C-alpha cells in the first residue's frame, strides 16, 4: 500500500496496519520549514482517511526528532505577509495530528525542541531515548510557544507548571521530561525496538475501542485547542514585532547570550 503523492521532506511507509512517518531534513536536525509542515499535514490527512491503518509512528531521520521551526527560513527570510499563512499551516498540521482516528506514537531521539516538541505532544504516546533532550525553548528568541503547546502543556501539567516550563525554556533530559509527565516511556537502548514492541502490543488489543475513546476525548477538547491555536497565532504576531525577539534572533545567529530589555 502506498500514498498517491510524493514528498521531498517527509518519508513514509506502511507495514500491515502501521504507518511510519519520518521527518527528513537530517542536515538541519529536521527543523520544520514551510515545505515540511505542508508535507507532514498532507501525509497525516491521507493516513487519517485510510481505514486500513490503525497506528502511526512519527520520528525524525538522522540524529534528531526535530529541532523545531526553521529559524532562518521561517523567522528571518519570510515576508511578513506570509506569517499568517505559515501559522495556519502549523495549526492545520497540529489539529490533523491530534485529531486523527489512529493511535499515534512519537519516537524521540536527539533533540525535540520548540515546534518539534509541540508535534510530539500532539501524539498519544511519547517514547524518548534516554540521551534525548526536550525543550520548549521559544522564550530564548522572545517568542511564545505555538503548535498548540499551551493546550498540550496545560492539559498535562496544569496551568501553573505549564507557565513555569514555558518561561524557563530549559532543555530537559528524557528522565526529567518523564518525571514531569511529558514522556510516557524512557528507552535505555534501542528506541526502534521499544516502539516496535509497543506497536505489537497495541495490535493485539481492541484498538477500535481505543480509537473510539480517543475520538470522544478529542471531539470534546478540539474547540479549546482551536481557540488556543488562534490565540497563539495572534500572540506570536505581536511578539515578532518586539525588540526582544529581534535580539533573540540576532543572538541565536551570532551564537551568544541574548540581552533582553522587556520591549
TrEMBL record:
<dbReference type="InterPro" id="IPR001753">
    <property type="entry name" value="Enoyl-CoA_hydra/iso"/>
</dbReference>
<dbReference type="InterPro" id="IPR014748">
    <property type="entry name" value="Enoyl-CoA_hydra_C"/>
</dbReference>
<keyword id="KW-0456">Lyase</keyword>
<dbReference type="GO" id="GO:0004300">
    <property type="term" value="F:enoyl-CoA hydratase activity"/>
</dbReference>
<dbReference type="Pfam" id="PF00378">
    <property type="entry name" value="ECH_1"/>
</dbReference>
<comment type="similarity">
    <text>Belongs to the enoyl-CoA hydratase/isomerase family.</text>
</comment>
<dbReference type="InterPro" id="IPR029045">
    <property type="entry name" value="ClpP/crotonase-like_dom_sf"/>
</dbReference>
<protein>
    <submittedName>
        <fullName>Enoyl-CoA hydratase</fullName>
        <ecNumber>4.2.1.17</ecNumber>
    </submittedName>
</protein>
Amino acid at each position: 500500500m502506498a500514498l498517491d503523492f510524493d514528498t521531498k521532506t517527509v518519508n513514509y511507509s506502511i507495514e500491515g496496519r502501521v504507518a511510519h512517518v519520518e521527518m527528513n531534513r537530517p542536515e538541519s536536525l529536521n527543523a520544520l520549514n514551510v515545505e515540511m509542515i505542508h508535507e507532514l499535514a498532507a501525509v497525516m490527512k491521507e493516513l487519517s482517511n485510510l481505514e486500513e491503518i490503525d497506528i502511526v509512528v512519527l520520528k525524525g531521520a538522522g540524529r534528531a526528532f526535530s529541532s523545531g521551526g526553521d529559524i532562518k527560513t521561517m523567522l528571518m527570510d519570510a515576508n511578513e505577509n506570509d506569517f499568517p499563512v505559515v501559522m495556519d499551516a502549523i495549526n492545520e498540521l497540529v489539529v490533523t495530528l491530534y485529531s486523527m482516528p489512529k493511535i499515534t506514537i512519537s519516537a524521540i531521539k536527539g533533540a525535540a525542541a520548540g515546534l518539534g516538541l509541540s508535534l510530539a505532544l500532539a501524539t498519544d504516546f511519547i517514547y524518548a531515548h534516554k540521551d534525548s533532550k526536550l525543550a520548549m525553548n521559544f522564550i530564548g528568541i522572545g517568542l511564545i510557544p505555538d503548535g498548540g503547546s499551551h493546550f498540550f502543556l496545560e492539559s498535562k501539567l496544569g496551568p501553573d507548571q505549564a507557565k513555569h516550563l514555558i518561561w524557563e525554556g530549559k532543555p530537559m533530559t528524557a528522565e526529567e521530561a518523564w518525571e514531569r509527565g511529558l514522556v510516557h516511556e524512557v528507552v535505555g537502548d534501542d528506541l526502534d525496538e521499544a516502539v516496535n514492541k509497543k506497536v505489537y502490543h497495541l495490535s493485539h488489543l481492541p484498538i477500535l475501542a481505543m480509537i473510539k475513546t480517543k475520538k470522544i476525548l478529542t471531539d470534546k477538547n478540539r474547540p479549546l485547542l482551536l481557540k488556543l491555536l488562534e490565540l497563539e497565532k495572534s500572540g506570536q504576531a505581536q511578539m515578532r514585532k518586539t525588540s526582544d525577539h529581534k535580539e533573540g534572533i540576532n543572538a541565536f545567529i551570532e551564537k551568544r547570550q541574548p540581552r533582553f530589555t522587556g520591549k
